[in-house]
Amino acid sequence: MKVTKEIEKLGKSSVKLTVTVAKKDVADGYNETLKQYVKHVQIPGFRKGHVPAKVLESKYGEQIKAESISELINKALDEIFKDEKDTENRPLPYAQPVLQEMPALDVTKELKFAVTYDVFPEVEIKNFDGIEVKEPETEIGDEEVAEELKGIQERNAVVIDKKDDTVAKDDIVTINIVEKDESGNEIASTKRDGFTFTVGTAENVYKIDDEIVGMKKDETKEISKTYAADDSDAELAGKTKKYSVTVSTIKFRELPKLDDDLAQDVNEKFKTLDELKADIKKQLENAKNRRISEIKSNSLLEQLVEKNAFEIPESMLNAELDARWRMMANQFRTTPEELEKLAKASGQTKEDMLKNWTAEAEKMLKSRIIVDTLLKEKNITVTPEEIDAEYSKIAEQNGLSLDEVKKHYEDARAKEYLIDSTKEQKLYEELYKQVKVSKGDKVKFADLFKN
Question: Which of 92, 118, 142, 227: CA 20 to 30 A from 166?
C-alpha cells in the first residue's frame, strides 16, 4: 500500500497524523471488500457467490463503503506504525488513535484522513545546575542488631496461658464486648464474642487497652470511653461510647532465650548465636546501602523533574491512575467496580481519590520518563559479564550459591528486571558525576525507612 503522512505536534505530547492513501489502493481496497460480499452474501433469486456486483452495491452500497474505509484506515495505520525508523511518532500502547472525521469514499480519488493520539514525550534534560544529592550517614551497631534479634524472638515465641490472670500490656487477651445505649441496654447488633488482640497495639479497634489493664479473667467491666474529636476512626471521633466487656482468656508470648539453640532454629547454617548476629548485621548493611541508594536516586530525580519541566500525556496519566485503582481493589480483594461502591459508602468518590493521587502519579511518571530518556541518550547497556557480576553480588549478599541465583534468573521477566535495574545503576553512577554529592545528616537506621 502506498501512503504518505504528515505529523503535526499538538500539546501534551499529542500529535495529529494526516494520512493519504493512493488512488489505486483505494480502488483495490473497495474492490476487495466488494469481492468478499459477492463471495459470502446470499440474496433470494441468486445463487450464493453469483450475485452481480451492481445488485450488491444497490442493496449494500453504504455498508460496503464503510467497511472499505475502515479496512483502508487500519491497513494504512499498520503500515505507518510498523516503520522501525520512526519510533518517536508511534502511539503509546494505551493511546488508541482517534479518527478526527470519517472520510468519504470515492474510488476514483485518494483517501485522506487524520487521527490524533499521544506519543512518548520529547524531553530535553539539560539543566543540572545547582543539583546537590545528600547521602545520609548511618551506622549499624549493637542496638540495631538487638532490635532484629527481638523480632526473631517474637516470631519464634510460644503463646501460653498466663498464670497471673491479670491483664497487662503486651498480653494477648480475648474479650466479649457489647455496646450499650444511654439507658444501659445492650445494642444487639454491636455484640462481639471472642475478639482477640494484643494489649497496647493498634489491633484493638475499640481502643480500650488502658481500660482493661488490671482486669481479671472472667471479670466483666462497664467502660465509658470518650474518643478525641480528631480520632482516625470517623465512626468514633468525638463520641462517647459505653461498653460491657468480659475478659475470657489471658495469654502471653514466652520468648525463647537468645542462645545458640535459637540461632540453629532460625537456620541450620548457623551454629552459634554469634554467627546469627554477624549475618543480621550483614543483612542490615545490605538494606542500609539499598535504602541510601534509593534516597539518592529519588533526590536526584526530584530535582531533575523540577529543573526540566515538561508535560505528560493525558492517556499516560489516566493509565497510571487506573492501574493504581485496580491495585487498590486487588489489595482489598474486590473488583474495581465494588471498590467504587465502597468508596461512596465511606463518603468519598473515585474521582476525588484519583484527584488526590494525581500529583504523586505525575511525579513518578516524569521520573520514569527522565530515566528512560537518559538511558536512551547515553546509550546505557550492560554486558553478560556485568550481569554475571550481579549474580555473584546477589549470591554473596543473600547467602545463596551462584547456581541458586542463576536458576532464579532463568525466568525471562526476572532477568529482564535485573538487566533494567543494572542499567539504571550505571546511569546514576554517570549522573552523580554531573552533580554535587555530599554527606547528609547522621540518622538512625530505622529513620532511613520512615519516608
Answer: 227
- With cell 482477640, the residue in question is 196
H or E element at residue 440: strand 436-442
pLDDT for 84-95, tens place per residue? 777 888 999 888
Q: How far, in Å, are 31, 72, 386 from residue 37 at the CA level?
A: 10, 16, 59
What is the distance between the alpha carbons of residues 203 and 4, in angstroms, rounded to a whole number?
66
Cell of 374: 537518559
Which of 254, 232, 228, 256 has its CA nearest to residue 241?
Answer: 228
DSSP string of 269-304? Answer: T--SHHHHHHHHHHHHHHHHHHHHHHHHHHHHHHHH
Closest CA to 171 of 263, 253, 78: 253
Coil vs helix vs strand at 114: strand
3-state secondary structure of 437: strand
Alpha helices (H) along 133-185: 142-155
Which stretches does DSSP call E strand in 215-341? 220-226, 240-254
Distances (CA, A) of 164 to 30, 217, 218: 91, 9, 13
Q: Do 275 and 212 contact (CB within 8 A), yes or no?
A: no
Nearest CA to 236 among 186, 179, 163, 175? 179
pTM of the predicted protein model: 0.74
Side-chain half-sphere exposure of 366, counting CA atoms within 13 A: 23
